[in-house]
Batch of 2 targets.
Target 1
Amino acid sequence: MTPATTPNVNVSAAALKNQNNLIPRPQSRVPAPGMFVLTATTALQVQTGNAELKRIADAFAAPLRRATGFPLPVSLGDDARGNFLFTLVDDPTLGDEGYELRVTADGVALRAHKPAGIFYGTQTLRQLLPAPVEQATLQTGAWDIAAGTIRDVPRFVWRGTMLDIARHFFKVQDVKRYIDVLAYYKLNRLHLHLSDDQGWRIEIKSWDRLATHGGSTAVGGAPGGYYTQDEYRDLVNYAAERCIQIIPEIEMPGHSNAALASYAELNADETARSVYTGTDVGFSSLAIDQANTYQFVDDVIRELAALTPAPYIHIGGDEAHSTPDDAYIRFIERVEKIVHAHGKQMIGWEEIARANLSPTTLMQQWKSDAVADAVKRGARVILSPASKVYLDMKYDPSTKLGLDWAGIVDVKTSYAWEPSTEIAGVAESDIVGLEAPLWSETLVTRADIEYMAFPRLIGIAEIGWSPEKNRAWDEYKNRLASHGARLRAMGVNYFASPQVPWE
Ligand code: TNX
């Protein structure tokens, strides 16, 4: 590492504070004397031989250049020239996403076993720098980074959120902005709810009216819309560059009115339904015993699987109140075979636990302990307990947006719970991770999304990443308080909850 001209043996209070306030809290952090100060001569060097590392380093440096005005060149090399060194090491204990970050007065060494670990290390570096680094315009720095060593690996492999683009439609550019913030807090799954009674949001070339007709409206008659396959691919790539997998969901057999409105032959009475703009649930069902239905399911899953690098397709399966029980079970078991035939594994909401399914199928818990039985048969679970992590629940009774059927979910409630003891019969090893759904019956704009998601989703990201022993609300709320300035710098419309002593 090229030594700095004057080593900084003292550390600024601001830099120390940033190191104390990381979210998610790292698995281990050992402070050391001194700090590294970013200057006009700071340079980055990336190990040769991995194009992914260079891309991650460039993505890290570009916004830093804007805020600091420094050139911050990124070079490829293996001779430790530069103050920021990004290196892949053969250390399986860091896993697919872990990293080790050593900061001294001379520079920053970031190591990981896989590129995703380097990416997460760069997100930690952003939080070690002062909040103005997130501004899009030139700022006056002290660009200090406190010295120390951070070694960090996530607790769960699945750290996600779900966005409902069916009830209201959100454009690709809005979803990208959301993805930016998810990545900053080390979330790695974005489940897109692509169809529901009120709208079909993804182009399917073999059934084109799904999008053009089924996607033409939204709740309350708001404008509809859908993603073309090119737009969807662009979103998948944008997310992948930020280490986020897009998990697509098509609802069946219920929550299917948009499809039933688009094609008469999907209805048991062969009569197309009208498009629907209300918010009732449970009234629609695909025709379970018609061949057309399985042609439709096969075509949709085939096209979606081809567009989706993630190994999963989510088939919904919730609240199918208009499908008789035996028909529901038959249907879900048949759909699972179709998903497998297209090379993917299946996810469904917890109601699918009634069917006899492969142990590779993930059950997404949301309202009960119904998944416990499936766990006994070897199934694994994504936890989305509505009373803790439903981001569409109101923060308090006066919250204008949102619903309250699962209760009031304040910022503390969404943070102060523990996955491994949440559902009787579902232990740590049965849980792949967490997902916080954001249903959009009442949400119309990107500002609405941000208001409901933040800050609650930040705490949920920490539950997914950090060990339980490192977590307590009274300590967390102070760390969260310091993130207000970061969220404002990023232009995020968060809810300034009175439970948090915002700075
Ligand atoms: C229940 S959660 C639903 C959604 C609604 C949501 C509103 C789930 C699997 N189904 O259809 O949008 O409540 O909170």
Target 2
Amino acid sequence: MRIARFRAGDTIAFGVLDEAEDGSGIELVELAGDPVATGYETTGRRLRLAEVRLLAPVIPRSKIVGIGKNYLDHVAEMKDVTGGGGAEAPTEPLLFLKPNTSVIGPDDDIVLPGIAERVEHEGELAVVIGRTAKNLPAERAMEAVFGFTCANDVSARDLQVRDGQWARAKGFDTFCPLGPWIETELDLSDARVETRVNGELRQSGSTAQLIHSIPQIIAHVSQAFTLLPGDVILTGTPAGVGPLVAGDTVEVAVEGIGALRNPVV
Ligand code: MG
């Protein structure tokens, strides 16, 4: 099931994507509330997907947890950026946080900060948490998952290196595009994660290449932080990260979910 958050006129609501009964395209079945909190009661209203503005499918009230260096080929390329210190794959998932003010939705602008000289895309699979969880074992970690979406862990690489920690470099407003919707069922064994800039393929990986699996990541994060409904975990980026400049359009596509597109200004 695919769940979007959208604006139609003055209304902001959630909806379930559904084929129109007359076969004329995709519609949204409007939900009465936030499905993470209140389930799937509908209002009975149906809207054409093409006639609404999609928003970020979730605004975390609590946190976005990022996982650094979780694809081996990306660990290798980061060796050049960080001067050799990043050459080894971490033995346990490396965590960082992004503020919820960094979240934007599909087609929203990624705004390049004037103080950053090199801003890069990191296309990633994002996990949306559906229930409160603490100290989960990996075997039960998927019980906490509501669904999955596409994310761009936009990063000011020069500031990441200069600061030595990542809060500012990854935390600017607009640096966490999410969307276009949440897919509640996803085969995690070999889902392609691809990033294109102006239509050109820049990153192409698969969840089969993850150093730490999705359940391992969730279990690990839940040892540190209580996971709350609506929290988002970014699962790491494959090789091929590179610069974004004003005028670019960047697209993150995860197989089985869809594509998240954002202009850069
Ligand atoms: Mg990342």
